[in-house]
């Protein structure tokens, strides 16, 4: 009898746990987990900690006793190294330095979030605004977790920046990038036509930039 009661209680606990709000892995973090990295300060001091980049809040986070916190005092940070990649603070955000030479290619990692919507008539859903949903997750602190409630849709995307002659300029498509080469625009146009450069293909963007450095 005692054995039966134990099984019954265990079953009830399992049922209760499964009825809670489920969570799933989402992609608002650049890396699947926090990893050991280095925060290099402008005065040369190196701080070792576990890091990850939150593309939703556009912050570099570190863990301190299990609590996730955003790096502050960005004006004093030179570079963040994590998972073999480099991030530099620009205008209050951390952007990834992909390539640095005569030209520099820099990536801004971002993420959009979409609420699953509320049930509506005829089996449809009523979509809430992304801004409202985004704000609610920030106020609840959930944006700092590796997981969000089930049904939330996230979509990572990037913006590219080109540093040329000390000037940093964002480009949203290949056509805009071609224009940034100024007097070499005709050369870059010809390369793009022959090599099918795609904005969504980072490697092809990088190859174009390296080509333009020697032509």
Describe this structure in words.
This protein is α+β, with helices and mostly antiparallel strands and 215 residues long. It is 26% helix and 40% strand. It is built from five helices and 14 strands. The chain has helices at 2-18, 130-139, 174-179, 185-195, 202-213, and strands at 23-25, 35-41, 46-54, 59-64, 67-70, 77-82, 85-90, 93-100, 103-114, 118-119, 125-126, 147-149, 153-164, 167-171. A ten-stranded antiparallel sheet has the order 5-4-3-2-6-7-8-9-13-14, with helices on both faces. Strands 1-12 form a two-stranded antiparallel sheet. Strand 2 (35-41) and strand 3 form a beta hairpin. Helix 4 (185-195) packs across helix 5. 19% of the residues are buried. Mean pLDDT is 80; it is low at 1-26 and 119-133.
Offer a concise description of the structure.
With 215 residues, this protein is an alpha+beta fold. It has helices at 2-18, 130-139, 174-179, 185-195, 202-213, and strands at 23-25, 35-41, 46-54, 59-64, 67-70, 77-82, 85-90, 93-100, 103-114, 118-119, 125-126, 147-149, 153-164, 167-171.
Strand order across the largest sheet: 5-4-3-2-6-7-8-9-13-14
Q: Which sheet architecture does the biggest sheet show?
A: 10 strands, antiparallel
Unreliable parts: 1-26, 119-133
Following the backbone from N to C, one meets helices and strands in this order, namely HEEEEEEEEEEEHEEEHHH
Q: Estimate the mean pLDDT confidence.
A: 80
Cα-atom Rg, whole angstroms? 23 Å
Query: Cα distance, first to last residue?
Result: 85 Å
Based on DSSP secondary structure assignment, what is the total number of beta strands?
A: 14
Provide the structure class: alpha+beta
Count of alpha and pi helical runs: 5
Assembly status: single chain
